[in-house]
UniProtKB/TrEMBL annotation:
Domain of life from the UniProt record: Eukaryota
GO biological process, one term: cellulose catabolic process
The enzyme's E.C. designation: 1.14.99.56
Gene3D superfamilies: 2.70.50.70
This protein's GO CC annotations: extracellular region
Comp. bias (Polar residues): 250-260
Entries under InterPro entries matching the protein: AA9 (IPR049892), AA9_LPMO (IPR005103)
Positions of the UniProt region annotated as Disordered: 250-280
Chemical reaction(s) catalysed: [(1->4)-beta-D-glucosyl]n+m + reduced acceptor + O2 = 4-dehydro-beta-D-glucosyl-[(1->4)-beta-D-glucosyl]n-1 + [(1->4)-beta-D-glucosyl]m + acceptor + H2O
Name by which UniProt lists this protein: lytic cellulose monooxygenase (C4-dehydrogenating)
Length: 312
């Protein structure tokens, strides 16, 4: 590598090397997020303080991102809702990484009718989606995000109504050949799920953040360049098979504690209708961005597994 290129790489601001969720679309309704530390508009997306990863797997920030703050709004969703998530670089350009999975969890905001005041400390997260390598078993779904596409997923078809946090997480594995090198980027969006679903996670399907990941997990300490065909083992629990809240509660009563208790069944009555007021629809905030985007350079570096030069 030329010393000039090395000089340039070492001086790319971190703001351009990582990123954040700039927009979440639920069944076609767009919700715009705030750039890290710039609280300029009301949003259901919890604002983070930096666009860097949460590499300390014991940190409370592993729940929703660096110093994530409760947000003012909730996005209205329903069982089976199509969710599209837009990840951008710190400068507003394309997401800069391409190696590693995208995982999605939810947690009911318990003991409250909204997520606005919900503290994630006691949250019981269940996984609803995990996306890794594409069908060629070589390139990752994250590559699509780097190309500027949204990440798409759907909510469970039988999801019980209630307030939930949706935790969408990219785990960058470009440095994960070293223990501690994985780069989780969690992001949380506050949802109100409507409808008449009955599905809740079983107790053994829920995890806490921090707590769910260990630096020795095969999906966390993983050399993505060693043999690109190596099967990938997702970290965290399996995708939850939501059980019928009514049946689960009945069984609990009958068996008197021999069945692991399900989460409290949210009351459908409370969430039949969206709360008053239509969520704001702001224009995407990154369209006018004029900052230079370092994506092409970073892509080359990531492919060589040397992106650590930029980030350390
Ligand atoms: C990781 O986070 C935990 C919990 O906040 C903290 O106690 C610990 O010091 C952190 N470790 C490092 C290396 O920063
Ligand atoms: C963002 O601004 C709104 C409106 O001024 C305020 O209610 C909220 O507390 C602010 N959030 C943060 C994280 O500063
Ligand atoms: C919810 O409230 C109940 C009753 O007050 C309490 O036992 C429980 O610990 C609370 N759960 C959370 C997650 O705060
Ligand atoms: C999300 O959906 C759009 C529209 O169908 C598609 O173009 C895009 O490739 C999808 N994103 C991913 C990551 O698959
Ligand atoms: C959202 O995802 C759905 C399902 O993949 C897709 O049909 C739709 O085009 C996507 N919308 C956007 C804005 O990406
Ligand atoms: C929920 O059930 C009520 C009646 O029990 C019905 O009126 C309503 O349309 C249902 N909502 C959905 C989203 O299916
Ligand atoms: C949870 O417990 C059920 C019943 O014992 C079992 O079938 C299931 O595999 C367990 N799930 C997990 C994620 O351990
Ligand atoms: C991670 O796994 C190692 C090896 O199994 C274990 O010694 C350590 O206690 C675990 N750490 C956490 C935080 O669970
Ligand atoms: C769940 O329980 C409710 C109430 O008993 C019942 O109406 C519904 O059909 C059940 N759903 C499933 C998938 O078993
Ligand atoms: C509850 O018990 C019924 C009848 O014994 C059984 O069919 C059902 O699968 C059980 N549900 C759960 C969640 O264990
Ligand atoms: C169920 O638990 C209660 C409270 O601990 C206990 O008094 C009762 O004997 C138990 N019943 C059965 C059938 O185990
Ligand atoms: C029910 O299970 C909990 C958690 O395992 C335990 O602490 C409690 O003592 C049990 N209660 C009864 C009545 O067995």
């Amino acid at each position: 590598m030329s010393s000039f290129l090395l000089f340039v790489l070492l001086h790319i601001p971190l703001a351009l090397a990582h990123g954040y969720v700039s927009r979440v679309t639920v069944d076609g309704t767009e919700y715009v997020g705030n750039p890290p530390g710039h609280n300029t508009s009301s949003s259901p997306i919890r604002m983070v303080s930096s666009n860097g990863p949460v590499q300390n797997l014991s940190s409370p920030f592993l729940a929703c991102g660096p110093d994530a703050q409760p947000a003012q709004l909730e996005a209205i969703a329903a069982p089976g809702s199509v969710i599209n998530i837009t990840w951008v670089s710190g400068g507003g350009g394309n997401w800069p990484h391409e190696v590693g999975p995208v995982l999605t969890y939810m947690a009911e905001c318990t003991n409250t009718t909204t997520c606005k005041d919900f503290d994630t400390t006691g949250a019981r997260w269940f996984k609803i989606d995990e996306a890794g390598k594409q069908s060629d078993n070589v390139s990752w779904v994250q590559l699509y995000i780097e190309e500027g596409r949204n990440f798409n997923m759907t909510l469970p078809e039988n999801l019980a109504p209630g307030p939930y946090l949706l935790r969408n997480e990219i785990i960058g594995l470009q440095n994960a050949m070293a223990r501690g090198g994985a780069e989780p980027f969690p992001s949380c969006t506050q949802l109100i799920v409507t409808g008449n679903g009955t599905g809740v996670p079983a107790a053994n399907e829920t995890v806490s953040f921090p707590g769910a990941y260990n630096s020795t997990d095969p999906g966390i300490w993983f050399n993505a360049y060693d043999n690109t065909h190596t099967p990938y083992v997702f970290p965290g629990p399996p995708v939850a098979v939501l059980i019928n809240a009514t049946a689960a509660q009945t069984n609990d009563t009958e068996t008197n504690n021999t069945t692991a208790p399900a989460l409290d069944a949210p009351s459908p009555e409370k969430y039949k209708l969206p709360p008053s007021g239509t969520p704001e629809l702001d224009a995407p905030s990154h369209d006018g961005c004029t900052e230079m985007d370092a994506t092409p350079v970073l892509t080359v570096m990531a492919a060589r597994g040397r992106i650590a030069l930029v980030e350390l």
